[in-house]
Amino acid sequence: MVLTTVLAALLSITLADAAIPNAMLRGRPGLPQIPVPERSLTSADGTALPPITTVYYFNQLIDHTNPSLGTFQQRYWMDWEFYEAGGPIILMTPGETDADGYEGYLTNETVNGMIAQQQNGAAVLVEHRFFGYSNPYDNLTSQSLELLTIQQAIDDLLLTIQQAIDDLVYFAQNADLPMPGGDNVKPDTTPWILVGGSYSGALTSWTMVNKPGIFYAGYASSGVVEAITDYYGYFTPIREYMPQNCSSDVQAVIAYLDQMYDEGDAAGIQTLKEAFGLGDLIHDDDFASALQYNLFDWQSLQPDVGPGAMFFEFCDALEVKDGVNAPATGWGLENAIYSWGNFWNTTYYAYVCGDTDAETCLGTYNTTQSYWTDVTVNNANRSWFWMVCNQVGYYQVGPPEGQPAIVSRILQPIYEERQCVNMFPQKFATPPLPSVAEVDMMYEGWNVEVDRLFFANGLRDPWREATVSADGLYKSNTTTQPIYEGDGFHCSDLITDNGVVDATIYTVQMAGLEYMKTWLAEYN
Ligand SMILES: *[C@@H]1O[C@H](CO)[C@@H](O)[C@H](O)[C@H]1NC(C)=O
Ligand SMILES: *[C@@H]1O[C@H](CO)[C@@H](O)[C@H](O)[C@H]1NC(C)=O
Ligand SMILES: *[C@@H]1O[C@H](CO)[C@@H](O)[C@H](O)[C@H]1NC(C)=O
Ligand SMILES: *[C@@H]1O[C@H](CO)[C@@H](O)[C@H](O)[C@H]1NC(C)=O
Ligand SMILES: *[C@@H]1O[C@H](CO)[C@@H](O)[C@H](O)[C@H]1NC(C)=O
Ligand SMILES: *[C@@H]1O[C@H](CO)[C@@H](O)[C@H](O)[C@H]1NC(C)=O
Ligand SMILES: *[C@@H]1O[C@H](CO)[C@@H](O)[C@H](O)[C@H]1NC(C)=O
Question: Where does the UniProt annotation place the signal sequence (predicted)?
Answer without folding.
Answer: 1-18
